[in-house]
């Protein structure tokens, strides 16, 4: 006689198991999102200029040579990370008499206002200065989110241990009864 393999029937998942699996998947997704965002906003990453541009104000009001100017910023399409300085990743421009229907007037080197006295003002720094406040808020929120996620991970691992222990105890009781 040939020995027949006895197939064990898998017991349907309990509510606890389904909850543990769902919570684990949600926790994993949150870790990937928060961790990925922290990596993407690192200044050494190629995505940093896009991030910086996203959090910069799109316009800044300033006074230059007794004239009120509204300056605007855009990404420099010709920026080459290997050839250009980091501040050259952006171009700053304004409109004559603040008339947005006229042609854009780009600042020297895309970022510098030079007056009659040849005093140079790096206007990109005004945009970046405003962006650093937003950046600090975002980084602080991400750090707090990671702390909360680690605490949730600890609770999840304790809960997971409980579910596994509970299943083993149920099997031991079933074996004692049989």
Structural topology:
Layout lengths: L14 H26 L7 H8 L3 E6 L2 E9 L14 E6 L8 E3 L5 E3 L5 E3 L1 H54 L1
Antiparallel strand pairs: 1-2, 2-3, 3-4, 5-6
Account of the protein in words:
- The protein is α+β, with helices and mostly antiparallel strands.
- The protein is built from 3 helices and 6 strands, in the order ααββββββα.
- The protein has helices spanning 15-40, 48-55, 124-177; strands at 59-64, 67-75, 90-95, 104-106, 112-114, 120-122.
- It has a 4-stranded antiparallel sheet with strand order 1-2-3-4. The chain has a two-stranded antiparallel sheet with strand order 5-6.
- α1 (15-40) packs antiparallel against α3 (124-177).
- The longest helix has 54 residues, at 124-177.
- It is rod-shaped and about 95 Å long.
What labels describe this entry?
single chain, 3 helices, 6 strands
Summarize the structure.
The chain has helices spanning 15-40, 48-55, 124-177, and strands at residues 59-64, 67-75, 90-95, 104-106, 112-114, 120-122. The chain has 178 residues and is an alpha+beta fold.
Average predicted local confidence, pLDDT: 82
How far the N terminus sits from the C terminus, by CA atoms, comes to 27 Å
The number of distinct helices, counting runs of at least 4 residues, comes to: 3
| Helix and strand run | HHEEEEEEH
């Amino acid at each position: 006689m040939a020995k027949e393999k006895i197939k064990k029937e898998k017991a349907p998942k309990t509510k606890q198991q389904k909850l543990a699996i769902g919570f684990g998947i949600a926790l994993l997704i949150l870790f990937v999102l928060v961790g990925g965002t922290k990596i993407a906003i690192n200044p050494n990453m190629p995505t940093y200029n896009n991030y910086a541009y996203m959090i910069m104000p799109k316009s800044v009001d300033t006074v230059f040579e007794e004239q009120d100017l509204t300056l605007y910023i855009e990404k420099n399409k010709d920026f080459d990370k290997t050839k250009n300085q980091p501040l050259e990743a952006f171009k700053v421009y304004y409109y004559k008499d603040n008339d947005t229907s006229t042609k854009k007037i780009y600042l020297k080197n895309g970022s510098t206002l030079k007056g009659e006295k040849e005093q140079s003002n790096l206007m990109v720094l005004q945009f970046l200065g405003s962006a650093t406040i937003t950046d600090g808020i975002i980084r602080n929120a991400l750090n707090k989110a990671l702390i909360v996620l680690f605490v949730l991970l600890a609770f999840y691992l304790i809960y997971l241990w409980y579910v596994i222990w509970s299943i083993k105890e149920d099997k031991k009781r079933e074996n004692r009864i049989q």
